């Protein structure tokens, strides 16, 4: 996957430094104001749409920025919360749920930021790519909340929206203890692979 450095610099502003992390080779960027950046990407031959880093640790009160690396993608940054499409609660109780709405690299919503004021574990997803497991996890301060207490899919007994197997697989591959220890975890690129031709309805 190739990321246009000039586009990223335009999005993030001046004074940006890139640090290459292992895995997919996607830059984990920090702007001059020390805002960590999560990049969306895809590997179409493997049927993968993802966030990288997929796991991120931040201190309480930190803002995170998400950006798109592919101009053909349209994504959302949506917290697992009942108010967001009837999803199960996978962010701390009392934390405000976030939802970016549709993001387009070529439009006015080419980036999304959110400040995390409540400590705990936050799981989020992209509404456009549910079946392929486009999810991420952020640990704010220390792990805690429903995402730590209950496995993905627990809300089904209460009539909440389906958590697809690919979503559960990615979230289960992002243990919060490892996120805290390493600060970032790359997307597990060999965990969920769907060979072409495939259907977006595959589960």
Instruction: Give a short account of the largest sheet.
Output: 5 strands, mixed
CATH architecture: Sandwich
Number of helices: 4
Strand order of the largest sheet: 8-11-12-5-13
Helix content, binned percent: 10-25%
**What number of structural domains do the residues give?**
1
Mean pLDDT: 83
User: Structural class, judged by helices and strands?
Assistant: alpha+beta
SSE order: HEEEEEEEEEEEEHHHE
Percent of residues in beta strands: 25-35%
**Distance N to C terminus:** 25 Å
The parts where pLDDT drops under 50 for at least 5 residues are 1-32
CATH class placement? Mainly Beta
Overall, the morphology is: globular
Notable characteristics:
27% strand; 13% helix; alpha+beta; Immunoglobulin-like; disordered N terminus; 203 residues; 13 strands; globular
Task: Describe, in plain words, how this protein is organized in 3D.
The chain has 203 residues and is an alpha+beta fold. The protein has a single domain (5-185), classed as Cupredoxins -  blue copper proteins (Immunoglobulin-like, Sandwich). It is 13% helix and 27% strand. The protein contains four helices and 13 strands. It has helices at 5-12, 146-149, 165-172, 176-182, and strands spanning 17-20, 27-30, 37-43, 48-52, 55-58, 63-68, 74-75, 78-79, 103-104, 111-115, 120-125, 135-140, 184-185. A five-stranded mixed sheet has the order 8-11-12-5-13. A hairpin with a 6-residue loop joins strand 1 and strand 2 (27-30). The longest helix has 8 residues, at 5-12. The radius of gyration is 16 Å and the shape is globular. The model is unreliable at 1-32 (pLDDT under 50).
